[in-house]
Amino acid sequence: MKSNRITALAFALSQILLSSHMLANETNIVTNDLVVALEQKLANKRGEIVRHAENLQTQIDTLETLLTERESLAGKAIELEKNRALAQERLDEEFRRLIENPDTDLNQFRDAYQATWTLVKENQQSTLQNTKTVSEQQRIITRENRQKQLLVSTLANLQEAKKEARVKRLRQELTVSDSIEVVHTITCSSLMTLAACANQGKTLTMQETVNMFQSHMLDKVTESTTAKLNSDRVSFNINVMNSNVINSGFSGDNLYVTRIQAEMKSHPDENAACKLLNFAEQYCVEDSFTTAKTVPKQRVKRWINMSIRSNRYDDNVTIDGVTYGSTPVGIMLPAGRHQLTVEKVGFEPYSRQIFMNKDSVIWANLIKQENRLKLGKGFTDKPSNNRQAAKMVVIGGGKYHVDFEAKQPVLIK
């Protein structure tokens, strides 16, 4: 069938009835509360880090002020020492005069020297106190830097814990069981039998049901926007627990309507949550989750994604007798064996029976057909001078009699 003969119409997506039965609802609430609690702890920790950074900056500013004061005291000490040395020279000079003249008054020079000496001693005391204060302030800053590292480390641990909680929450939200009813309409070719049209309608409606189940599942997760951005990287392993065709039949010109009700359950891959959240897979390595998965008692259908590509345009893809048009084709099929055919006029058809147990991409290499001769077919070469050429006939291998009156036997192998 050509792709333009069968067109899947999307105006059947109106009556969709979902009655979700989320698995482990209480666990989801606890996990969600854990994420919220960690978010609150992260907010508190970030606030604590901000306040600590402000206090640390205050301590650093205080140390800078003390170091500036130490430089000032050092400069002042040099100036005071010069003044003391000058006062001592003057006092020594007056002592020499006193030897020559006993009436010389030394009080003024002695008081001046004592004043400079007092200033030097005071500056030395201030310098000693400054040194002690600087040392203490440096110890305070060292302690605050260690506290800063502890706070940053705690914040990083909380961020990791939040990632793990988000993965666990999403993993639980992706494990759902829903009952879904879908009405889907297709256009059947006038060349199709009723059975073929009904089979086509059922197959495409079931695929639409699986797609709708997945879409609604992603709509309901807490981090829906992020999950949808990465959903094409994930296998959700949607199982059809039970399905029934409620009614089906023609409606209008070649329009075939199928209403299906199905019970479905998703069993996403272990690393699905990490891929959806764009996390490293290390956050999804959890033995407890894989061992906690229960095996369904009843036989279920697991749906997988299949993409078909080929090296030609305007080809035709048929899977299990259902035509899907020309490549590229992306569909969801139940796991198991399927008959795939990709064909195009003038090319050898690509026909395979394939077993699907995981999402796959299939490349069909269509090879141009050779101009094969058939037995008994006659043909005539065209000479370049437009003269009539001898007529030839294709024969197979065997024993023949040729020549005049067929007297010469010939064996052709």
UniProtKB/TrEMBL annotation:
Keywords: Coiled coil, Signal. Residues 35-97, 148-175 form a coiled coil. InterPro entries: PEGA. Residues 1-24 form the signal peptide. Residues 303-366 form the PEGA domain. This is PEGA domain-containing protein.
